[in-house]
Fold this sequence. Notes:
Radius of gyration: 17 Å
Structural class: mainly alpha
Oligomer: single chain
Strand content: under 5%
Shape: globular
Helix content: over 70%
Amino acid sequence: xxxxxxxxxxxxxxxxxxxxxxxxxxxxxxxxxxxxxxxxxxxxxxxxxxxxxxxxxxxxxxxxxxxxxxxxxxxxxxxxxxxxxxxxxxxxxxxxxxxxxxxxxxxxxxxxxxxxxxxxxxxxxxxxxxxxxxxxxxxxxxxxxxxxxxxxxxxxxxxxxxxxxxxxxxxxxx
Length: 174
């Protein structure tokens, strides 16, 4: 726990030390908003997996902690990936990565750091592959990258911190 807090404090210091703002042009902002609207409209209303998905993730996380098995999170991640194969939707990727984040936290708590890092990296990769990230994608990406600092080598920390700051600033702009 102390190590995690130290990493968090160091990452906050590093993030605050970077200067520069990333700004979107008006044209880019309009394009991003249009793609977000299209993303929401393309979700099939009959897909019950996405109904109350945040609560499903949190329930799977709590249940995994209680029964000492991550099976529920794994099943949820796989279901989201399968749904995305059919629909190819950035919102599904967001929820997949969100589930990976909680799965990674669970593995960290259980002292399974390699597994935690692997799951976190997969969630980050999926978010990075989204072409038109909205503010939620960027905020989650910043959160996941800041969490990944605890697994990074010393030389990677400033680079990750810079990306965290850039993604957080872009999220605020949107």
